[in-house]
Amino acid sequence: MSGLTLNLSAENDTFPVITLRFTTPADWTATVLADFDHFLLDHAAAEKKAAGMAISMASHYPDKPELVEAMADLAVEEMSHYREVVKLIHARGGLTAADERDPYINELRKHLRKGSEAYFLDRLLLGGVIEARGAERFGLIADSASDDAIKRFYTSISRSEERHRTLFTDLACRYFAAGTVDARLGEWLDIEAEIAARQPLRAALH
């Protein structure tokens, strides 16, 4: 969706880039594909939570019109992904279920700083890092799936997540100096790598 792209080239010469510092092992992909129906339930929950996060951001920062518009577009796109995953669950004879606890997300949220400006920057960067992890892992599924329809679907989802992580860093650079964004992003990438590395293997996105 074009509404998810910000062009800030006139305001910043360089942009911080989210490059994950932990690579998901092949065992994760094998675990997911071995219990794909359970993974789909977790994926649906993740899309629903992502839409809720976008709505929350728009609600908390109504004085930032660029952010509000971007988050409105993001919420719509994440809910469209949720709808498609739900259709896939139903087509495979399953039903959606109550959301399960996500230890990865909960651990990450413990590192959000207090103070309005610090918290705002952290929410943006955390959003970008989570989207980057999703892009990586959806891409792994696309690369390994034997079903052509599943492969096409997860290729498309992975590309969407790639756009989303750029969206969050672009927004961060709209409201904060690029150097400030880059320095905190480096800290978040270290935090995320440590948390991701110690998560047990399970048929879930995180």
Q: What do these coordinates show?
A:
With 206 residues, the protein is mainly alpha-helical. It has seven helices and no strands. The protein is globular.
Question: How would the blueprint of this fold be written?
Answer:
Layout: H1 26-34, H2 36-60, H3 65-91, H4 103-109, H5 116-144, H6 148-175, H7 178-197
Radius of gyration (Å): 17 Å
Total number of helices: 7
Q: Give the proportion of residues in helices.
A: over 70%
Shape designation: globular
Largest sheet: none
What string, H for helix and E for strand, traces the elements in order?
HHHHHHH
Taken as a percent bin, the fraction of beta residues is under 5%
Terminal Cα span: 25 Å
Going by helix content, strand content and strand pairing, the class is mainly alpha
Overall pLDDT confidence: 93
Primary descriptors:
single chain; 0% strand; globular; mainly alpha; 70% helix; 206 residues
Give a short overview.
It is built from 7 helices and no strands.
